Amino acid sequence: MSIDPAFRKRLIQASGADNVLTEPSDCWPYGYDNSRRQALPEAVVMATDHAQIQRLVELCHQEKIPLIARGRGTGTTGATVPVHGGIVLSMERMTRLIKMDPANRVMVVEPGITNQQVQDAAKEHGFFWSPDPTSAAFCTVGGNLAYNSAGPRTVKYGATRDNVLGLRAVTGEGREIRTGVYTTKGVVGYDLTRLLIGSEGTLAVITEATLKLTPLPEAKLTLQAVYRDIGSAAAAVSAIMAQPVIPCALEFIDGQAIEMIRNYSQAELPEGAGAMLMIEVDGLEAGLEQAAERVAAAARTAGVIDVTLAQSEAEVQRLWQTRKALSPALRNIAPKKINEDVVVPVSEMPALIGGLEQLAQKYAITIVNFGHAGNGNIHVNLLIDPDDPQQMENADHCLDEVFTLVLRLNGSISGEHGVGLEKRDFVAREIDAATLELMRRIKAQFDPHNILNPGKTLPPAPG
Amino acid sequence: MSIDPAFRKRLIQASGADNVLTEPSDCWPYGYDNSRRQALPEAVVMATDHAQIQRLVELCHQEKIPLIARGRGTGTTGATVPVHGGIVLSMERMTRLIKMDPANRVMVVEPGITNQQVQDAAKEHGFFWSPDPTSAAFCTVGGNLAYNSAGPRTVKYGATRDNVLGLRAVTGEGREIRTGVYTTKGVVGYDLTRLLIGSEGTLAVITEATLKLTPLPEAKLTLQAVYRDIGSAAAAVSAIMAQPVIPCALEFIDGQAIEMIRNYSQAELPEGAGAMLMIEVDGLEAGLEQAAERVAAAARTAGVIDVTLAQSEAEVQRLWQTRKALSPALRNIAPKKINEDVVVPVSEMPALIGGLEQLAQKYAITIVNFGHAGNGNIHVNLLIDPDDPQQMENADHCLDEVFTLVLRLNGSISGEHGVGLEKRDFVAREIDAATLELMRRIKAQFDPHNILNPGKTLPPAPG
């Protein structure tokens, strides 16, 4: 698809000549994300400020041209891949920290700023912003807003949706809206802030976000707990989450993962380990050891093999080494593994892992599970060779059954990666028809010509 | 207005004869709330279960009859007063605790259950539900959902919107929707849960709520900090909120309130007190004293007169006595005071209180301020005599200027009481026209015939 010269002229008029790319070779790098999907946009516009974005959206609305906002492409679901062509709006230059307001624990930023830049700026004033995805060094706040990104510390401090006070945005009609408040409380009007967060650029283009900051903890302690089986580990997670010391990380790896680590690294692990939890507790130094002991006590369920509280920074490193050995091991065995992101109630984790073991057998696929146990958010890794068509077909069937299992357990098909294209066609299994129809109608109010990231997030209307 | 006999018959058919009141004398008690407004509904229906509510909404949708869901009438904004007639749907009999799930820290309830009943049931398992409005003993969870209710502990544990995972509801077309998840994470579809929370019954009738519980803290310590002036107190609030020990209550009263307490009670207060903070810190017993000391250190700003850490339960009572003497004193002086509920960024509290002092002089009205300082949420009390028409007119002008001031300070006209009728006509000052129009369009998707609590929350469309 190539761009009409008259439209190109108007695009340049609206966006500035320096900010418009139309050569396919220039546009190509803006057409992929970490899902390994790719499609060529007809043009790429570099966002510079709110007014420029508003002009661009107006133009796209008039001409019914798809517009896909994009951060740094670290998403895993194809949500920014321009499968219907149109214009990719890259936020990479819109990286200003508009306001740092430590007295109110607030930071106002443009969407192109990276998560890490936000953390660095907040740290100077003794704060952090809770969302901590693995891609923090590269991913943008705009992406975090689009996907409602989370990470290990979500279990204590919340995900993106819990840590944003307000937004400035442009709807699909090119109208500016301001949602939310600059305060930590507010009940005037409908909550459009949280409606936009997690909507993957399908409702509006966010041009400014007011982030809620949290004071940095003074100290942190690390524990490792090893279990005979997943059932004991899940019981421990419930017990940990039922006492007043909420950990700032409560991460999990399953027996298959432990086996893999044992084979591919030097990490020490006790014999008979069927599941492991990595736990971190933060707060004031005073009382923190007792807090960690309280968590350790809760972690000592019937099937526990060992609970270790790191006594030194070296021991912290040693304990995390096991968990950190997992990713290289996985990459080694299956460089193109499928990484799913399901969530179930904590008490259903044993049923989930048990079911996954059965599916692994049925489809002859190795499945390795790890994730954020405190939220029941498990990354299900199917170790497949994408060049083997039979295995790929098996993987498709297997994933289908994984989602069925997750929904039967009262879970959700995505905890933090989002829907995009990858899971779009499974959404109707989780959300009933009436609720989906309402979501589509809401989308049509924000974006009547369906130009904003069309074809993503919601499955097409039936019939 | 009286009800048409044919419609009455259909209403009884849909709702059950035992659940329908149509005698004006029976209906009258369901037409008021704590705003002191009152209007007579044409009928009252006692909600019994989801299916019955769905039948009723279908009927009202067909016949375009207003339907106003109501808890126990403790709201202060007239949000449940049936000013357009129609049917009041009372939730008072729909009080079931559907599911208690301690392993997942979840409780599923019907909307008529009181906040206190939820707290009691949660406590048996070592949990609480964060929203703690003053009316907790009487107010319903449905009301808490409608207003996004909060309270003192919101500063640490969040308001209603932060503590609900999912909802079951009936839209204005009589369609069942299910929003959210049963897990503490989830990013599939748009966030309709938080859209419904705070929408004051204008989008859907909530029939079931999945509440997120929090473990009860082990211990609590109480501090009182007294300041020469509001500026010093506000600086202390910023300092307290910038260090890692977030208090579970950070309450404020101003100099006028202190003066009043001094005159109307035995509570001890140091001379020259221009503002007071009541602070509570909770957590494990181990380390809690150090945590309280950390907060006390932050509270010791330049204008501090005294910071007292209660050393015994008796001293806790003595310290709170001052704060608790305020409400009777206020009732004594001005039984029909106007109680507003504004919120400003914490750093703007001195500007707010300063501005309020000027307005008090200008309009010759005593204004007393107290509230949830950690969130900048201040209850502005205008001590007026409602039988004095001149004073009432002054109060109207004064309130108008209060809202202007609050918005100039980047605040919001309601922190936790909501909009209802009382503040509806001020909403357009806070929310711009494009955003309001979008909210109206969203309302029309949920409720195309505008039967659900018509005339509340959003100001009428212009023109």
UniProtKB/TrEMBL annotation, chains A, B:
Residues 37-216 form the FAD-binding PCMH-type domain. GO terms for biological process: methylation. Its cofactor is FAD. Signal peptide: none annotated. One of its GO terms (molecular function) is methyltransferase activity. Keywords: FAD, Flavoprotein, Methyltransferase, Oxidoreductase, Transferase. It holds the Pfam family FAD-oxidase_C. Belongs to the FAD-binding oxidoreductase/transferase type 4 family. PANTHER family: GLYCOLATE OXIDASE SUBUNIT GLCD (PTHR42934). This is Dimethylmenaquinone methyltransferase. It comes from Candidatus Tenderia electrophaga. The lineage of its organism: Bacteria, Pseudomonadati, Pseudomonadota, Gammaproteobacteria, Candidatus Tenderiales.
